[in-house]
Specification:
Number of helices: 2
Shape: elongated
Number of domains: 1
Structural class: alpha+beta
CATH architecture: 2-Layer Sandwich
Helix content: 25-40%
Distance between the termini: 9 Å
Radius of gyration: 16 Å
Largest sheet: 3 strands, antiparallel
């Protein structure tokens, strides 16, 4: 079974990496980019099929290690 965890910086937290990407795009001639937020996609392969506890287990993994819940939000998708 495959799953994905998308981790994003919370909207109220500054994103210096996103700002650097926005500035670089501007220097490359890409006009009109008002903002960029950078996140990460974590793909996970888990043995077996989806069970009722799988999403909760993945959310626990994300909360404990994959994301920093103080400054990041995450979203879990099964079957990604």
């Amino acid at each position: 079974m495959k799953a994905a965890v998308m981790v994003r910086v919370k909207p109220e937290v500054l994103d210096p990496q996103g700002d650097a990407v926005r500035r670089a795009l501007e220097k490359l001639g890409f006009e009109g980019v008002r903002g960029v937020r950078v996140g990460k996609l974590i793909e996970i392969e888990i043995e077996g099929d989806a069970d009722p506890t799988l999403k909760a287990r993945l959310e626990k993994m994300a909360d404990a290690m994959l994301a920093n819940p103080v400054i990041e939000d995450f979203e879990v998708k099964l079957g990604a």
